[in-house]
Amino acid sequence: MANQEQPDWSSLPLDLLPLIGQRSRDAVTGVAAFRSVCRAWRAAVGPAPRLLLPRAGSEPDQHVLVFPLSRGWSVVVDARDASCHLSHLATGATAALPKLTAVRDGSGGTRHIEYEHRPDAGTAIYSNDMFFYYTYLDFADCLRFAVHVPPGAPAAAGMTVMMYHMMQGRAGMLFCRPGDEAWAKVGKPAPTIGPGFFDFAYHDGKMFGLESNGVMAVYDAVTLDVLNLVQPPPATPNLVNKMYDSVAEFEEFNYVHLVALPSKLVLVRTSVKSSRPVAFSIFELGSAPGGLAWLKAMDAGNYDMFIDGYHTTYRESGANCGTRIYYVHDEHWSVIPSTTAAYCYSMHDNKLECVYRSSEDSPELSTKPSWFVP
């Protein structure tokens, strides 16, 4: 037995490797271990998702806040003055963006929102209309991004970055392109609910913004005219969002997030019970007798979709894998300790697994955990 020849695992048939990789222990560490066997195994399965855990550092870099977007790009914000830029981790490429506080007004000029970085005063940041942010995490918690990267676009050329922060008040959302001097405002259609959209997306020449009540506004991305208002997905009670709502009053509630895939816009509904996600549902934007509506779908196709508190993105997965949803769940409040967990849900296997959970003594973070997708 001691001299028995061991099997050569690297010589397995190539068509079996993706099937084995899909069933490797868990969705993060199992895939990483599978890809470390040899080059053939590494080529058979895409890289494991990477969860960015931005520990609050010491001077001189504690003010740097990083928000991953898609295709390896991230927005990097300097909390001292709200300046920001795009950065690509793999290539080192960068592109200038306007300060978060620079907003183009209706006359074509630029308005600058009041902003003070004053950590010595007991608050990290003071902003317009008496907004106080006691930590960088509080400030980051009020920020959302979406990005549109045209297929085959060189570097950051043609990219559209969408953004909203609560300090911008009753703006629907804002957008810019690399090199712009200010963010352009996309106003909300009346009547408005809440200060700004809590989620948004860009797809097929249109911009989409979600109201706090679940109604979605559809805009022409060139003229910014409102084209449609889409009602919330059916059978979605206790709809809340992490930007404006407290969930303390609900034992069961639902979050929704927009994901722009190459050929369609989908909405992912996360059902939460006892502070844990228990179910995921997918709706596709389509035509109905009354106009555009959210239509229930079995899945979204062979895609991995990544959802966290700042942004959503996707990547294509192997054939016949179905849809996998990678989701970061946390409810951060300044006065209440919270635990962050990351989950993977396979719609093909109807399997939900926790792939990361923070400990009670986790170090202070400068932003919430978020997915980095090369």
What does this structure look like?
The chain has 374 residues and is mainly β. Helix content is 6%, strand content 40%. The chain contains four helices and 28 strands. The strands form seven sheets. It has a six-stranded mixed sheet with strand order 7-6-14-13-12-11, with no helix packed on it. A hairpin with a 4-residue loop joins strand 23 (303-307) and strand 24. The longest helix has 7 residues, at 29-35. It is globular, with a radius of gyration of 21 Å.
Give a brief outline of the structure.
The chain has about 375 residues and is mostly beta strands. Helix content is about 5%, strand content about 40%.
Topology:
Layout (H helix, E strand, L loop, with lengths): L16 H6 L6 H7 L3 H6 L5 E3 L11 E5 L4 E6 L4 E6 L5 E4 L4 E3 L5 E3 L2 E3 L7 E3 L3 E3 L2 H5 L2 E6 L11 E6 L7 E4 L6 E4 L12 E5 L2 E5 L5 E5 L5 E5 L21 E9 L4 E9 L2 E13 L2 E7 L5 E5 L4 E5 L7 E6 L11 E6 L4 E7 L12 E3 L2
Parallel strand pairs: 6-14, 23-25
Antiparallel strand pairs: 1-28, 2-3, 3-4, 4-5, 6-7, 8-9, 9-10, 11-12, 12-13, 13-14, 15-16, 16-17, 17-18, 19-20, 20-21, 21-22, 23-24, 25-26, 26-27
Helical coverage, percent range: under 10%
Helix count, DSSP H or I runs of 4 or more residues: 4
Q: Quick one: how many beta strands?
A: 28
Low-confidence stretches: none
Question: Span between N and C termini?
Answer: 45 Å
Mean pLDDT over the full residue set: 83
The strand line-up of the biggest sheet is: 7-6-14-13-12-11
**What characterizes the major β-sheet?**
6 strands, mixed
Which word captures the global form? globular
Strand content: 35-45%
What would you report as the Rg, rounded to the nearest angstrom?
A: 21 Å
SS content category: mainly beta
